[in-house]
């Protein structure tokens, strides 16, 4: 691990400690206790789902799989990390890495699930419902006070140098997987084999991915969160969409690439190139002060141009946007905040914690903020051929070229996505 990363992590912890203490003084708390959480068995079973620790806990320490653990931040002494490390021959217990950040905490290794002694003036941040499962009574303190929780979410909106470094490395590792997925597709593999190629090249097991990888061929590329992997290759290969990520020290990459199949119509290749160009033009406009909602609306105008330029719509750009044609071809938002969580917190609130919901016409938009330096966002325009969304338009007199649309239906759709850090004077594309 590089010395630069360790220095950045120490500075990150120092800044968090200062910010937390300022919030404790502001809201008059003696301490803030972050509970990592724990997995609960499936109903009627003894098997556990995959676990990932609570985001505010991971914001401090890169222990994504640490269950039943606590980080208590005090106003007047070093933070205390209570790490659950049972004596267990069934599972390998959590161990501390030999890294400098460990020295920034007073650490207690706990062999049993343990709740630290907290006073009534402690803010407890975490999943209280799961905590009740393993405690006779909840600990003293105030559970998830709303104003403080919003303030802690806001601390995660602006990334430190350490966090940007982690996100950049997560992107590098994920792109190795994307390259392997493309090669597997070229070799006529099925969706499952493409997924396995991605995991192998990005050096991760399926339980460690930050979200369920989307590996969709042909019409499956038009299912926005396609959740299966076919085990047989299709007889025709029109397209492949890979939306897949990687974690590094708890921080998530979220990258999408769409690839041309040998059986796709020529127009689909042209549309893929057009959508990459749309993505690049939108990224070029990123800078402090940019309204993300306005940029999302700009995506729809760009999409209207693509539909018109390629003969899919014979009307004006204004008509395509106003009549909902572009929304039928792209029903999701332009992007979202990215960090410890793939859809990171505070995207639909103002900096002061007030609600800032998505516009009524764009309910799937996950980020409504004005961009500021340190934010990391995804930019992911799409163009899809989804029967459920397009069929209602067939009963209108809108000038859609249904002959071309029907030719493109087997291709499913196109999405391209990069991860972008907002800098003082523009942007930094973290996706190599």
From TrEMBL:
Q: Does the keyword Protease apply?
A: yes
The molecule here is called Xaa-Pro dipeptidase
HAMAP family found in the cross-reference section: X_Pro_dipeptid
Q: Which GO terms describe its molecular function?
A: aminopeptidase activity; metal ion binding; metalloexopeptidase activity; phosphoric triester hydrolase activity; proline dipeptidase activity
What's the gene? pepQ
One GO BP = proteolysis
Domain Peptidase M24: residue ranges: 166-423
Specify the species. Vreelandella salicampi
Q: How is the cofactor bound?
A: Binds 2 manganese ions per subunit.
Which catalytic reaction applies to this protein? Xaa-L-Pro dipeptide + H2O = an L-alpha-amino acid + L-proline
Q: Which cofactor does it need?
A: Mn(2+)
Q: Mind giving the lineage of the organism this protein is from?
A: Bacteria, Pseudomonadati, Pseudomonadota, Gammaproteobacteria, Oceanospirillales
Give a GO cellular-component term.
cytosol
Record's function text: Splits dipeptides with a prolyl residue in the C-terminal position.
Top EC group: hydrolase
**What UniProt keywords are attached to this protein's entry?**
Dipeptidase, Hydrolase, Manganese, Metal-binding, Metalloprotease, Protease
Q: Enumerate the NCBIfam families for this protein.
A: PRK13607.1
UniProt-listed Enzyme Commission number(s): 3.4.13.9
The UniProt similarity line reads: Belongs to the peptidase M24B family. Bacterial-type prolidase subfamily.
Where in this chain does the record put each Xaa-Pro dipeptidase N-terminal domain? 9-152
Q: Does the keyword Manganese apply?
A: yes
Q: Where does Mn(2+) 1 bind?
A: 254, 336, 380, 417
Sites binding Mn(2+) 2 sit at 243, 254, 417
Under the heading SUPFAM superfamilies, the entry gives: Creatinase/aminopeptidase
């Amino acid at each position: 691990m590089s010395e630069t990363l360790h220095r950045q992590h120490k500075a990150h912890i120092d800044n968090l400690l200062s910010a937390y203490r300022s919030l404790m003084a502001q809201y008059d708390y003696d301490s803030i206790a972050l509970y990592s959480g724990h997995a609960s068995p499936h109903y009627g079973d003894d098997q556990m789902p995959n676990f990932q620790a609570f985001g505010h806990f991971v914001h401090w320490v890169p222990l994504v799989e640490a269950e039943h653990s606590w980080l208590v931040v005090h106003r007047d002494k070093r933070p205390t990390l209570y790490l659950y490390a049972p004596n267990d021959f069934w599972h390998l217990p959590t161990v501390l890495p030999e890294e400098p950040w460990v020295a920034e905490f007073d650490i207690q290794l706990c062999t049993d699930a343990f709740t630290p002694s907290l006073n009534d003036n402690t803010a407890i941040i975490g999943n209280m419902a799961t905590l009740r499962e393993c405690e006779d009574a909840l600990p003293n303190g105030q559970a998830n006070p709303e104003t403080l929780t919003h303030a802690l979410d806001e601390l995660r909106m602006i990334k430190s140098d350490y966090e940007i470094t982690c996100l950049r490395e997560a992107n590098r590792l994920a792109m190795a997987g994307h390259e392997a997925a493309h090669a597997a597709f070229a070799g006529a593999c099925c969706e499952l084999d493409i997924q396995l190629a991605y995991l192998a090249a990005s050096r991760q097991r399926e339980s460690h991915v930050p979200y369920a990888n989307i590996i969709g061929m042909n019409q499956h590329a038009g299912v926005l969160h396609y959740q299966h992997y076919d085990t047989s290759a299709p007889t025709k290969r029109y397209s492949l969409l890979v939306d897949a990520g990687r974690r590094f020290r708890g921080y998530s990459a979220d990258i999408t690439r769409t690839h041309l199949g040998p059986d796709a119509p020529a127009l689909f290749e042209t549309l893929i190139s057009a959508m990459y160009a749309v993505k690049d033009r939108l990224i070029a406009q990123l800078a402090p002060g940019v309204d993300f909602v306005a940029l999302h609306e700009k995506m729809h105008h760009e999409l209207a141009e693509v539909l018109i330029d390629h003969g899919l719509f014979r009307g004006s750009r204004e008509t395509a946007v106003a009549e909902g044609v572009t929304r039928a071809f792209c029903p999701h938002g332009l992007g979202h905040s990215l960090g410890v969580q793939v859809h990171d917190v505070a995207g639909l609130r103002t900096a002061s914690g007030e609600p800032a919901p998505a516009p009524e016409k764009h309910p799937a938009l996950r980020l409504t903020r004005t961009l500021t330096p340190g934010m990391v966002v995804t930019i992911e325009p799409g163009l899809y051929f989804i029967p459920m969304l397009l069929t209602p338009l067939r009963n209108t007199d809108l000038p859609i070229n249904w002959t071309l649309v029907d030719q493109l239906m087997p291709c499913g759709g196109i999405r391209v996505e990069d991860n972008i850090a907002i800098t003082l004077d523009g942007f930094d594309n973290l996706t190599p």
